[in-house]
Design goal:
The chain is of the alpha/beta class. It contains eleven helices and 16 strands. The chain has a seven-stranded mixed sheet. A hairpin with a 2-residue loop joins strand 15 and strand 16. Helix 4 runs parallel beside helix 5. The longest helix has 20 residues.
Length: 392
Amino acid sequence: MFAGLMHAACSERKRGSRVFFDLCAPCLFGLESIVAEELKRMDMQNVRAENGRVFFSGGFEEMARANIRLRCAERVLIRLGSFHASTFDELFEGTKALPWEDLLPPDAEFPVKGHSINSKLMSIPDCQSIVKKAVVERLKTKYKTEWFEETGPQYRISFAILKDTADLLIDTSGEGLHKRGYRAVGNEAPLRETLAAAMVNLSRYRGRGRLCDPFCGSGTIAIEAALIARNRAAGIFRSFAAQAWPQAPEKLWQDARNAAKALEFEGAYDIWGGDVDEKAISIASGNAKKAGVDDIIRFEKADAGKFSPVEPGGTVVTNPPYGQRLSDIETAQGLYRSFGRACRALPDWSLYLISPNPDFETHFGRVADKKRKLYNGMIQCNLYMYFQNARR
């Protein structure tokens, strides 16, 4: 079993002069198919989705392209190997057998993090210690040294143990890909950028027509919609951990950024965000400016319960307040009712609303045409979808 799984992860390491890897894009549960489609549109090879992650094949060029252009994935990882590990000895030997020296230089900094689910090895600190020790033992043999200063670039090692199968990976992204670089501050309980982009994706908004977010908060949905409308790469302005790696020189990253910029669109777009909180509007406007899309988004103070655009059609993508305490829940339910009444008067508008409240449809006053389970961090939610809602 060990040999077979190891081979599956490392079989295509070289093609001609290029090194290829088994790359992994973890994502929030429910977004796997969206991330897979993103990768296919980038012409990535061997794309296959699993629970919470999508694998694909590629070299350093594909790794850079994925980091810069993915909207809905959380990271880009290199999977160095996969093997059975139901004991600490198996975890140590399996980790030690992997070719860490292919990526880690002698001065590499290599912290270890990970998780274990439904497996015999449940102590995360012990697993971290064993993985670290195994990598050190491998590198000691390859580099003929007894001590590693770890003063060089960071290669953060991740382990994921699921049902006694261990995946060993190296993080190329550094900070999560949801951190685009435009949201320096936010309001309470902000929506993760990757989820906001997925919601816009599911609404099929691509820049045509009007998009509104009546509960805009810090502006994340509207900003992600603007980036999608312009086809601007989500990570175009941020840096990544692998930029410090000697195997991935700056020219590789610059070429990937230039290729992404060449795909951008210019045009007139109609994107609006409203919120009753003036501070939230100020934050949203500042975030849009940082993202370079403030010229195509209009934010203003507005009551979602009185949402009544003049236009005969458009798309609403929004994240109404959840409510944490009992009083907040009751307030949120009241907002659902008032917003639902406002939406029933809209001609030919499509609605996409996310909520963790299992009784959302009751309070909103309409059964959704379709629901999709999504996660906002660890919070299980539903995306309630209403298609051209006033025609029904």
